[in-house]
Write a structure and sequence with these properties.
280 residues, alpha+beta, Beta-Lactamase, 2 domains, 5-stranded antiparallel sheet, 13 helices, 5 strands
């Protein structure tokens, strides 16, 4: 089947600005909505006014003809587009890197990026093995590059399990396994975009997006909304084929200097889940 490449058309900075502008209503800045408005969100000239820049310069940003705005311009755009801390950091990353894509050589064999050297990776695997709760090691593309025994059993019955986004959107039975699947799906897309950061044009991400947008209408629609989500702790409910209902607190442990690798640890939220994990 032919795969659409709409997800990476244009410049990452330009795409982000267009998507976020469309989400801001004039009333949020105490601007008159007006009966003759042709767009639901802010107009380009309104964003430019609120950011303290010329309309022509902002148009060039949205068209991808200008990719490296100054710090002052970026801060003005953050205020004009009412960006939260996560979205503001994302805009700053896009502005610093312009349209540079990550080279394919930046990824090491097995989906582990060059920032996670072999010695450290081995140490992290030993750490995972010592943990008494389900734990996974994921990279910035949400590839599952490691885990302990319970981590491997936690999503039993779901395939593929090499990438968490593929697991959520493409695995048969995922919508039953994740009892709050719509929320999980929404957060997964936003987390992938946030973790990808300025490398939204990379080869590795492009391959993943090709597959997800081709086979999941939900993913394709959500990716175009440019939501961002950085997870520190979350609550998950699973319907496991053998262990039954599981209630888990998911903790995200960042590994500094590892090029985006994180440990996801799933701690039982109640006694029933603790007992169910023991049975596994």
């Amino acid at each position: 089947m032919k795969v659409s490449r709409d997800h990476d058309a244009g410049e990452p900075l330009a795409e982000f600005l267009r998507a976020r502008r469309n989400r801001i209503r004039p009333e949020q800045h105490r601007l008159a909505a007006g009966a003759q408005r042709q767009v639901p969100g802010l107009r380009r000239d309104e964003v430019a006014f609120l950011a303290g820049i010329s309309t022509d310069y902002y148009v060039r940003l949205e068209q991808g003809r200008e990719r490296r705005p100054s710090r002052a311009v970026v801060e003005g755009l953050c205020k004009a587009l009412l960006l939260d801390a996560v979205a503001a950091r994302h805009l700053r990353e896009l502005s610093v890197t312009g349209n540079s894509a990550a080279e394919g050589s930046s990824a090491a064999k097995g989906g582990v990026r060059a920032g996670m050297e072999t010695g450290r990776l081995e140490a992290v695997h030993r750490l995972l093995g010592s943990m008494t709760v389900p734990a996974l090691l994921v990279n910035r593309w949400l590839d599952i590059v490691g885990g302990n025994t319970l981590g491997g059993l936690l999503h039993e019955g779901l395939e593929p399990r090499d990438n968490y986004a593929r697991l959520v959107f493409l695995a048969p039975g995922a919508r039953t396994f994740f009892t709050e699947w719509p929320e999980v799906a929404r957060c997964m897309v936003a987390a992938l975009r946030a973790q990808a950061g300025s490398e939204t044009g990379s080869v590795r991400l492009g391959q993943l997006l090709d597959e997800l947008t081709a086979y999941s209408d939900v993913f394709r629609s959500a990716w175009g909304e440019h939501h961002l989500y950085e997870k520190a702790m979350d609550h998950k409910r699973f319907r496991h084929p053998r262990a039954g209902s599981l209630a888990l607190d998911q903790h995200v442990l960042e590994l500094p200097g590892s090029e985006g690798h994180r440990i996801w640890a799933f701690h039982p939220a109640d006694d029933a889940t603790s007992n169910a994990l023991l049975r596994l």
